[in-house]
Amino acid sequence: MDSKISQREQWTSKLGFILAAVGSAVGLGNLWGFAYRASQGGGAAFVLLYVLIVLIVCLPVFVAELALGKNAMASSLLAPVKLGGTNWSPLGVLFFLAPIGILSYYSVIMGWAADTFFHSLLFGLPKDLSEAKEFFGSVSSGSSVLLGHSLSLVLTALIVSSGVKRGIEKITKSFMPILFIILFMLTIWAGSLSGAWEGYQTFLFKFDFDQLKNPTTIRNAFSQAFFSLSLGIGIMVAYGSYLSKKSNLPKLSFGVASLDTLVGLMAGLITFPIFLTFGLSDSISDSTIGALFISIPTGLGSAGILGRIVAIAFFGLVYIAAITSSVSLLEVPVSSLMDKFRFDRNKSVWLVAIFVFILGIPSALDTNTLGTFDSVCNILLIFGGFLVTFFMGWVVPKKLDSEIDVSKVGVKTARYLKFMTKWICPPLIAFGFLISLFDLLKGWLS
Ligand code: PHE
């Protein structure tokens, strides 16, 4: 055991952790999911619900996951058992399997992004919507989709096989600043478009109170919050286990959650002006999983050379954001195998990667299957969030206490977090989970 602890890697600095965690959080969920879900109905009501869920529910979940990993100093598979006994092994198994499930289709979407990026760079953009649809059809089928899926996995695997410090931390440290610069420039550019104001209104101010009661909007907001913050499936348990003893978990969680939400909002401030400037509002309402890959190139296609440059920057940004997330998804099962079976890192990485590749083939070949995978995994995240807060709030509350350092965060914050973790999060997340589950089943049965 002791030898395992001494072998455990640690982030080189607080900044290293923050960038890795923000890297995990900021991804396709922000750039693709946020706009896609906000446009699926909900609009500003969705955004409001999302922000509320992040503040009220997700922050305590974030702290709880980090505390679980940091206290157990073990992988996500073993941490629940280590603190709570063998009864809690199903939670570890959930943490092991869910990231594998997500990564299996996440890398497919990364392949679409890479394809769109290279196409914009080398050949230009589609002339109109029908050409864009045709292009997306070719990107999301046949051998190119399998190539994109496999190359994205190989890239992810190469980074993870270099380790926590030399792989994940290093890559996120160099990629995140680039990501923020591109994002910032694109937000300013989108603000200069003629449809910018209309776009902002649709995204942020078109408030329909009825949407607050719409189960699909509630499900979208819950899913988006958990997915976007990488919560509920053990990512932050793994990342927390590489933290140093003296870390201030609430402060770190707040920092990461704020940056992630900021990026989600900025992504909306980029995509909505594009949709509305280039007359793509219709494609918003019949928004599908491929929306981003159809509407954005179509819109930018009518904006000449500048549009093309923006498309290259945008899809480059999407890919950078996605790779810093995919490494976190792979790290969880990999570190779990290393912990459980004493495999070395390389062996674990390639074993998991091959398995993920095979599991992802059905999603690669059919976007509906991908959508189903995404819906199921999103529900698992919410369920995982429920279990984590129940576990830390009720089963091992002392461990949570010991990880919230009162001298650093103050008595009030510490009390607030413990109260939320115990009394508010479990019932509220259970409510979100049940609504989401019913809404999903209703969709399937109708
Ligand atoms: N948070 C990432 C995103 O927004 C995806 C992700 C989900 C990563 C769950 C890890 C765990 O794209």
How does this structure look, described?
- Helix 6 (89-122) runs antiparallel to helix 18, helix 13 packs across helix 15 (291-301) and helix 18 packs antiparallel against helix 21 (411-445).
- With 446 residues, the protein is mainly alpha-helical.
- Residues 1-6 have low confidence and may be disordered.
- It has 21 helices and no strands.
- The chain has helices at 2-7, 14-25, 28-39, 43-72, 79-84, 89-122, 129-139, 142-161, 164-191, 196-205, 215-228, 235-240, 249-277, 281-285, 291-301, 304-341, 345-365, 367-395, 397-403, 406-409, 411-445.
- Residues 24-25, 27-30, 102, 227-228, 230, 233, 235, 325, 328-329 line the site of phenylalanine.
**How can the largest sheet be summarized?**
none
| Number of E strands | 0
Approximately how much beta-strand content do the residues carry? under 5%
Bound molecule types = phenylalanine
Number of helices: 21
Low-confidence stretches: 1-6
Computed structural class: mainly alpha
Shape: globular
Order of helices and strands: HHHHHHHHHHHHHHHHHHHHH
Mean pLDDT: 92
Helix content: over 70%
**Span between N and C termini?**
52 Å
Radius of gyration: 21 Å
